């Protein structure tokens, strides 16, 4: 299993923070969180990251090696990724960008227009 290295987590976190409208925060003591308009789209822990998946992709993704439903957020269709065994770093970047889009869709129209 190819566990996510701290440098990979930092790279993915930096990618998420560079997306338009993204803001960074630390919640729950040590979890690094990236949001848009106050809506989270990435949670990065010490050895895993979590993000929202489209409803139709949630079950297929959560069954892959190194991927599972995210604790506390699975009801909202979030997945937790602990390794690059099934998803490459490019796949993770695409997933993070899609998670941002899903969060953006939940914002009021005026806010969405500013970051679309």
Automatic annotation (TrEMBL):
InterPro entries: YjbR, YjbR-like_sf, YjbR/MT2646/Rv2570-like. One of its GO terms (molecular function) is DNA binding. The keyword DNA-binding applies. Keywords: DNA-binding. It comes from the Bacteria. This is MmcQ/YjbR family DNA-binding protein.
């Amino acid at each position: 299993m190819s566990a996510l290295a701290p440098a990979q987590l930092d790279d993915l976190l930096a990618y998420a923070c560079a997306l338009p409208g993204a803001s960074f925060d630390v919640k729950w003591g040590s979890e690094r969180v990236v949001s848009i308009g106050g809506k989270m789209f990435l949670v990065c822990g010490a050895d895993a990251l979590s993000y929202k998946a489209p409803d139709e992709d949630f079950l297929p993704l959560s069954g892959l090696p190194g991927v599972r439903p995210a604790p506390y957020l699975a009801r909202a269709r979030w997945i937790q990724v602990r390794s690059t065994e099934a998803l490459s770093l490019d796949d993770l970047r695409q997933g993070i960008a899609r998670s941002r889009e899903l969060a953006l869709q939940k914002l009021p129209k005026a806010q969405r227009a500013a970051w679309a």
